[in-house]
């Protein structure tokens, strides 16, 4: 997937997230990322973010990894409720590629 990208970002490790009650508008911060230039990983970047509107974001998905790249991920709590619910949640995913996503870097 990376080999097909002229200019982009490769983002890893979700750090924080925010999504509205309707699950429509969202923003995710990741711990680390790399620039992609002409199909190769480049400079490392810290704290990259991405945001969007859920149906538009998923409509811009143009590649998904195969069965061999699928991995189970999880977090220690779902961050819902008052007080916050403490239960393990998780799901499996494969690397995905999206085009025309709004990205930035937290300072």
Which secondary structure elements does this structure contain, and how are they paired or packed?
Elements: E1 7-19, E2 25-37, E3 40-46, E4 48-53, H1 54-59, E5 61-64, E6 71-75, E7 89-93, E8 96-98, E9 102-105
Antiparallel strand pairs: 1-2, 2-3, 2-4, 4-9, 5-8, 6-7
Looking at this protein, list some descriptive labels:
single chain, 5-stranded antiparallel beta sheet, 9 strands, two-stranded antiparallel ribbon, 107 residues
Description of the molecule:
It is a single chain. By secondary structure, this protein is mostly beta strands. It has one helix at 54-59; strands at 7-19, 25-37, 40-46, 48-53, 61-64, 71-75, 89-93, 96-98, 102-105. Strands 1, 2, 3, 4 and 9 form a 5-stranded antiparallel sheet that branches. A hairpin with a 2-residue loop joins strand 2 (25-37) and strand 3 (40-46). The longest helix is centred in the middle third of the chain and has 6 residues, at 54-59. The protein is globular and about 45 Å long. The two termini are 29 Å apart.
């Amino acid at each position: 997937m990376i080999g097909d990208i002229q200019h982009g970002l490769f983002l890893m490790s979700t750090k924080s997230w925010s999504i509205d009650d309707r699950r429509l508008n969202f923003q995710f911060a990741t711990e680390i990322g790399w620039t992609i230039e002409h199909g190769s990983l480049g400079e490392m970047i810290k704290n990259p973010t991405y945001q969007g509107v859920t149906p538009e974001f998923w409509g811009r998905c143009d590649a998904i990894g195969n069965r061999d790249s699928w991995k189970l991920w999880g977090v220690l709590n779902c961050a819902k409720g008052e007080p916050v619910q403490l239960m393990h949640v998780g799901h499996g995913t494969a690397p995905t590629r999206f085009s025309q996503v709004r990205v930035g870097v937290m300072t």
